[in-house]
Amino acid sequence: MKNSILEIQAVNDLLVERVKDQISFGTFDDSDSQILEQLVEGLGDPRGLVRLRFAETLGEIGEAATPFLIKSLANHENVVVRRAAAKTLTIIGDPSAVPTLLNSFLNDPDTVVRSSSAGALAKTGEASVPALLEILGDDNKSQDIKGHAAWALAFIGSEGADYLYKALDSASLDVRCAVIGAIGHVAQEQSDEKSCNLLVSALTDPEAIIRAEAATALAQVNYPPAVSHLILALQDVDLDVRKAAINSLGKMGNPIALESLQNLLDDEQHVIQVLSKLAIAQIHRQAESD
Q: How far apart are CA 28 and CA 50, in angstroms?
């Protein structure tokens, strides 16, 4: 048995080395289905570094490897292969893998396969956005699944901006909350007026969780007009919104906020006092470093 394992490992070593050489010299035939199947099987090698070499090699091959990876992701009995297939699809980012990635994300019994599939969905960009929004709006989906979907949506960011803007009117609070977080990433990437203004408008949303998410997102955006709106949010009826506004003002470092923050040092909520003191110190430190 030991000799058999060593023989398989030796074959894998030779295979990946040969294919890497062919890729380097431009002689690799990416229509050779037998070799592609063998490369995907190599993702089950018991040696982590060797699995990584196979994944990197398949990543270099690119979309020609996608059909073989999605087949293994969907059906392979070896969970190590399924995990590695999902991670390799993350390298490739092929939109044609979205249906299989979604199925694995939602249904695979292994948590690593599910989370890796979410990561691969994020790398496919805009192609994944409608399905991710649908997951977020499904009351039957777990918070863990929704958390991964929200993360993927934020990672995609500006690529899915058109879908995000439309989804702000969703009837689902989970969708709207995730969308605000994702728009924060859009604003961070692009610093465009539209996404920044949407975040500012969300500071007066009827739902406190949306207001808090918007206040948090604005901390990552260099948008000075938001400062006055965050100062108003310091008086919000919801404690989480106030905390988020204080933290954001501290991170933004605009001295205009100092007086309003100093007024909170005697607030009846001890956490507000502490956060305000920290935010004031942040603003002073940034002023000294400028």
A: 20
